[in-house]
Amino acid sequence: MYGDNPIRQPLSGDGLTLNIQSIFATLQGEGPYVGWPAIFIRLGGCNLACSFCDTEFESFQPLKLGDILDTVRRLTTSNQRLIVITGGEPFLQPIEPLCTRLLEAGFKVQIETNGTLYRELPDAVDIVCSPKNTGKGYFPIRPDLLARVNAFKFLISAQNTDYSMIGEVGQGQRVPVYVQPMDEYDAEKNRANLQHATDLAMEHGYRLCLQLHKIAGIE
Ligand code: SF4
Q1: Helices H, strands E: what count in the chain?
Q2: Which of 64, 69, 151, 219 is spaced 20 to 30 A from 75 at the CA atom?
Q3: Is 86 in the pocket of ligand 1 (CB under 6 A)?
Q4: Does residue 87 have its Cβ closer than 6 Å to ligand 1?
């Protein structure tokens, strides 16, 4: 959305209808499950508007939970047992019923969040937090979310000083930290971002994370 999206507030509700941008089968391109066949459930709306955001999430439609699960089942193959719930910002919406139903159906469930919102979820849900910068430092991660985070993923830019180093947001040494070169849609900048992320990973022991889906040319 490149920062053009409206800032949306968290929605209340029973979670039996959710605003869905898209549901599709792909490979997880980022973070701990990189390379895993996965079904992505992309939810609509975000509470932030990042200038580099490369995702469309504002042409969403309301979809009933049963229809979401039917679509997931239709897309599922025997080796696609990972569901990635992403956005936008998934915690804008009451996603607990969706997570519970997916876990009951035997799926592994991973959430990707910017770390500024949280809702109580079953313990089995994996959470990857990608902190975002306000321009004056990183948004603090909610303490209740921090206790649940399984991995952090920081975007890295060589020139954008907001993203040239990872911030201390409470990650400590407790969970893996991934560094991912920011895609700035400029070959020269992207080369520099990759080099910088590589250097940071080598120096600090972070894990380098490339956007596999872009390399593979898939959604
Ligand atoms: S938090 Fe994520 S989804 Fe939301 S605008 Fe920023 S990059 Fe895009």
Answers
A1: 5, 9
A2: 151
A3: no
A4: yes
